[in-house]
Amino acid sequence: MYAAATESLIKQAREIKEEELQRFCGRICKLLHTKDVSGDTVDSLQRLNLIVSATKYVRELPSDLVMKLQTVLRSSSCPEQLQVLSSSIIRDSFPPSVHSLCSDLSPDSRTFSHVASVVLAQAGNKEDVMPLCHHLLKSLESRLSDGQISRHTLPILSKMITVYPEILTDDQVNLVSRKLVDWLRYASMQQGASMSSGGFFSGSRTRQPAPLTEVDGVVMGNFFTVLCVGQSYTEDQWMNMYTFSMIKSWLLTYDTDGTTNTDSALLKKTQGIHSQHPDDRSEVDSSVMSMVSATSSSSRLLPPKERLREKAFEYCQRLIEQSDRKALKKADTELQKACIVESVSIMDIICGEDPSYVYRAFPCIKALYGRLHGDLTYARALLPIAQFYLNHSETAAVDSEAVFCQLFSHCPAEQFNDPMLAFEFVQFCLLNASVLQDRVPNYRQSFPNLLKFLAWNSSGLIAEFVELLPSLIAPDTAMELLHTILDLPCLAAALDLQQRSACYHASDRTTWDQQGAKVAACLDAFRQPLYRGLFLYILRPEAGTGDTIDRLKMLHEILDDMAESPRVVRCAQVVPVLLHVYFNTVTQKADEKMMNQMLLVLLERNSLLYNIKTFNVEVQKVFSTHLQALCRLRPPLIVDQSREILEFASSPANIYSKEDFYTHVVWVIGEYLSVSYDPRCTVELITSFFESLEAVLFEITQVRQSASPPSFSPRLITVLMTTLAKLATRSQDLIPRVSLCLSKMRTFARSAPVMACYSEEDTEEIITRAHELINLLKLPNVAQFVLAPSAGGDGPRWHRDTNASLPQGMRAVSGLLHRHSSFLPT
């Protein structure tokens, strides 16, 4: 959220009128014509920058102002603050300035970088940036002294190849590859020269270059890397750092086929010898060459791309060795972690391009894993290591089971509250979901741990888990996963209590009480041995201990005081989304047994949900939708689970606590309890369902003077009436009973309590439905045709072909209803 003053400024910038903007631009033009840069000029440019960047559409500026801003941008003598502002304004304004800026590119590195940012932002195709590319490559080809090397060259090049990877030819790729090798491997080993004062009476003097050190303070003994420490750096050392930062994207963009055997390797070396250009050799001074370890002649004979791969591999190995040193500064420790992540990722790419590197890389990676796997502060570094094992363990015949057991069991359980790790971990799973399913047995078993990331960071990870969830569904754990999704808010509450309990000692009652009375009570319960089993289950690291627990209601009562926690409420909001994904996935591949289990879970869990505001209602809506889908896919489910469904439907109490779900249960009974769907559907079974629903309808529609207004919707009444009529058509002995029941609906609908609660349209709907059903039941065969059409009744032919039986039947029924309109019950 912006501060009030900031929002006010943005609003003013968005609402400025065109006439006022033109006058303001004219004033800036006059200010830019003066030689001296005043504070008013800077303030005006800052305001104009806010105006052009605060709106979604591009502002059109006067052409003379744009030309003046271009002049400022290309002038190396202008203050950099003006160049930065000019660059930002031109980038977000109209008309585009790509062609005019590229016509005369400045040799000044700072000016060139600002111009390049505008060109890359406004370019519409590869041709627009081609002059920029040629200028960039020309500067690389020239033999520049250290003082002339532009630090901005590689960031611009990296951005360019990211947007337009095809912009470089093969020769140009080789040229850049050779330069990257030079900067990556042959940087100076001395610190850059720094100016220092020699005292009051002596002028400034230049210090002699001092050697660089490792992060632990030891003098550097090998080639320079980003983990070498110094007070100042030379230009080629800066280029070394820039090169390392872009080498990963370069290797991914310009991939080459690796050599897999000795013959092909020798062939490539021979080709490299005959085609080598005199300038292909590393362009470094002999003084620098003497400071680094000698390279093998075979490495120098490799083609440029492969030589870059070799030097990048050596560079990464050196970084991993340096990361084992004890850093003197905390910032260097964090840099070591980042370098480990980047180095392992680069080695993974190199091994993917050339499998021969796998055997050289694995000893280093295994040693690194052995050093890091027990240190939780390096949890993020384990992800690229796991990726390396996943990609190359089969090639090297290395067992990776221990790596993934550590990754999926410890990291989510102990680092779930690290948002960056959570995001990267889930991204790792998404990227490798299919491979993890096939090759990592404990991937699907670890979903209780993975869902801890979502429970703690629900709003930030919901999109990723919607995509990831299908890969976690396995036949043997599908039901447990469903229960776990339903218990996700409980998991969020338990994780919150676990974090608080670890921070506060039980003896420090003052600190506990500061959390609030409700939270303090939950913390007490969390530490009670009596409830330890409940929390151990909800916080379990892997699946397989049971689908759910018997004392789930007790857990809900213990955590009741946490139901209003913002984290718990946000977590509850993502559960319906996940449920839709779960059911849509499972119903595509579920067998008969799994569908029966899912139906039982729906009946059981609709009354066993964490009591969070609107949570129960939203979950029951999802249950209702997918109950219909399950029964549509497999209608015999009604007979398979007839005892449980009958028990649920015969209880009027379910109407008041879960009306929507109850209504859908009644509907599927009427729709699918038929011999046409299941030959096991006997007259006795139909009669038992009819009698139970008849008793429910009778109980909720009794008209008494003391009766309170109904708390259920008219829709429930109409669904109950229709279902009873459907069942009666399948056992025609029941028709008189249902007709008698329907004849009482007018009295119910016209009673005082009902009229006070329902609208006139609602009461008419009940009376009309009863009237139509009574008329239909007077002709049982017609009623059975209308209320229980055959399974193919939803096919197009039944509705489009006038010779089919359905259109004819509908015409007959329409006539019947009109002729017998006097049958309205009184």
From TrEMBL:
This is AP-5 complex subunit zeta-1-like isoform X1. Pfam families: SPG48 (PF14764), TPR_AP5Z1 (PF25153), TPR_AP5Z1_C (PF25154). The gene is LOC113042507. It comes from the Eukaryota. Residues 1-294 form the AP-5 complex subunit zeta-1 N-terminal TPR domain. GO terms for cellular component: AP-5 adaptor complex. Residues 270-289 are annotated as: Disordered. Residues 335-452 form the AP-5 complex subunit zeta-1 ARM repeats domain. SUPFAM superfamilies: ARM repeat. Residues 464-816 form the AP-5 complex subunit zeta-1 C-terminal TPR domain.
